[in-house]
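Hi R.,

Here's the chain you asked about this morning:
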Amino acid sequence: MNKVPMTVRGHELLQEELKRLKGVDRPSVIQAIAEARAHGDLKENAEYHAAKEQQGFIEGRIKELEAKLSNLQVIDVTAIDGKGKIVFGATVDLLDLDDESGKEIVYRIVGEDESDLKQGLISYTSPMARALIGKYEGDEIRLSAPGGDKQYEVIRVRYI
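And here is the predicted structure, written out as tokens:
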């Protein structure tokens, strides 16, 4: 199986979530199940059923995170000398050539599990990232979007 790229920060966030699930959430739900059992009849015990459902969610998420973490290729962008080329992890400042106000947009190309468009984090598999990867400062890109074609100019490429 191919390794999935992820930034150092994304890797840290997954590890923190896994640690919290195993060290805090799992023991808490086990305690809640024990307390609900102490109340007697489990067939009509809503607290017990809710706790068991929560336990199933936690255990599923733990397995999912462990699988993801075992299949990662952590990339430290700060150690890359891309010589101005847009690569995984690069932060890219773009000028929207279709916007008369000269609007600038900043995106960082990250792994799929890290993407958050509101924070400017786009997945390397997204159409925008695929259009950007391999380009240099000063290059123009054209992207087909649902609202029509868009044009951007790469203003700056950073590895932070």
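One quick note: DSSP finds three helices and seven strands in the chain.

Cheers,
M.
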